[in-house]
Amino acid sequence: MSTTAVTETTAVSLAGVSKVYGRGGSAVRALDQVTLTTAPGEFTCLIGASGCGKSTLLSLVAGLDRPTSGEITVNGRVALMFQEPGLFPWLTAAGNVELALRARKVPRAERKARTLELLDAVQLGGFGGKRPHELSGGMRQRVALARALAQEADVLLMDEPFGALDAMTRDLLHDELDRVRERVGRRLTVLFVTHNVREAVRLGDRVVLLSSRPGRVIEEYPVPVERPRRIDSAPVAELASVITDRLREEVSRHGR
Amino acid sequence: MAADTTLAGLDALDLGDERQGADGRERAARIARTVWPKVAAIGLVWIIWELIHLSGWKKLVLPGPGVTLSNLWAQAQTGLLWHAIGDTLERAVIGYALALVIGTVVGLLVARIPPLRAAVGSLITGLQTMPSAAWIPFAIILFGLNTSAIMFIIVMAAAPAIANGLIAGVDYTPPLLLKAGKVMGLRGLSLNRYLILPAALPTFVAGMKQGWAFTWHALLTAELLVLVAGEPSIGVLFQADQDQTDMPSTIAIMIVILIFGVIVDVLFGRANNAIRKRWGLT
To answer: Would the CB atoms of A133 and B280 count as touching at under 8 Å?
Structure first.
């Protein structure tokens, strides 16, 4: 077991992880020697321009794909959220959450109450009977969050979950995500991928900057800003501009 | 909390006004809207038929609508027509149910197991294009002149259409939903039961509808050629009419078949609309 090398102070650990798609001349190196460790309960934001392999990295951590080389260790269960809510259109909001509980073999008697609790946690208590198409984009994403929480995950992987939402909804969902993380009552580790630098600084305990083609960790920024935070506050904006400059420098390297 | 009420407010704005259910008058208007074109179509057919009759074309053998419908009315008073309809429908329903079970199991296996698909995928489509009449000699030699032969012919005709509908439905399942299901921990049987089958349902229903059409085709073909002694099916009535050159009765029975076709189409249409509404595709 690879878990032996990892102590309880690690939630997710990537050691020299590389991922190559294809073979020979047409092979594409998506990730190159990525080494990254996150502590339980830590909120880590991964940021980078197109082609930095952010989504590849999450797929690997979720176990949907295998790395070409290197080692990935995850302590606990993993849940994954996408940019699209990915809700099942034939089920109601409550049905979607309940299916995640059913997949975990939660007894029928507990499922109803637990579903309601989870929908309440994302402030959708009154909307359990609605079908996904009847909800707004932000509400769907909250159902997806409730569904992810229903998986009793220790590690929540989020792949640009608010990327398709309008700015106002996104800001409110940032607050909501902070609140939900307090409310779940366990140490929920988050790996959050985005290309919105301010969003990364607003949410993360740490921001990890990845290079593009291939994806490689080039810089890590701890975020010393006190919570609760606001996306338009000065300390957030300040750090964001530092990271943005570094990111632009990295991107312009490809234009030469 | 301020943020809480903002979020709730945004939700309320996003959802807009709830639409009220249709009241009685609206419903009556909707029914009228769908019924009158059908009534008009029937009237039009009647008029054209009457005109052909009046023109004197094939006058000796082609009856007018009046004679035909009074023949149908007269037959409806006798027990024989109902008995025949009952027998034929019973075969149709049992044969279709068999085809549904076999088609679903085969379709799911073929869709989910790549080597199996490579082996028999095209064979299913090939079977679908085989005319049901081509199975009749085989079925009669295998089973004899009895109901089993008819059931066999129905299954061979309808099951491939149903299986193909399911295979297409599985193929069009969005990969994102599959990914979501896998991360959730759905595996094996529960993955099929809770994700693959519901996701495939709209296309599957289209296949089921086609399967019913094939059932009906195969059944009437079989009934005309596999005459089971002592069972007055629609095929037997047809055969008797043909022997006695009874054209009014022949057309009357064709009308009965048409009516069943329309009823089943309406039922599948309803199912289809219910699914589309559920998925938010209306």
So the answer is: yes
Question: What per-residue confidence (pLDDT) applies to A3?
Answer: 44
A248: closest CA of chain B, how far (Å): 31
Residue-wise pLDDT for B170-179, tens only, equals: 999 999 999 9
Q: Do B278 and A175 touch (CB under 8 A)?
A: no
Q: What is the pLDDT of residues B41-78, one digit of tens each?
A: 999 999 999 999 999 888 888 899 999 999 999 999 98
Q: Where are the beta strands (DSSP E) in chain A?
A: 12-21, 28-38, 43-47, 69-74, 78-81, 155-159, 189-194, 206-210, 217-222
Structural domains of chain B, ranges and CATH numbers in brackets: 64-279 (1.10.3720.10)
Confidence (pLDDT) at B8? 85
pLDDT at position B180 over 60: yes
Within 8 A of A100 by CB-CB distance, chain B residues are: 184
| Nearest by CB: A151 against B14, B184, B275 | B184
Sketch out chain A's domains with CATH numbers: 2-76+154-252 (3.40.50.300), 86-152 (no CATH)
User: What is the predicted ipTM?
Assistant: 0.85
Residues of A with CB below 8 A from B278's CB?
89-90, 131
Read off the pLDDT of residues A124-179 as tens digits, 9 standing for 90 and up. Answer: 988 999 999 999 999 999 999 999 999 988 999 999 999 888 988 899 999 989 98
Q: What are phi and psi of A36, to 5 degrees?
A: -160, 135
Q: Which of B176, B183, B278 sits opposite A79 (nearest CB)?
A: B183
Using alpha carbons, select from B259, B233, B249, B237 the residue that is nearest to residue B83.
B233
Burial grade of B185 (CB within 10 A; 0-12, 13-18, 19 or more): middle
Q: Give the distance from residue A104's alpha carbon to the nearest chain B alpha carbon, in angstroms.
A: 7
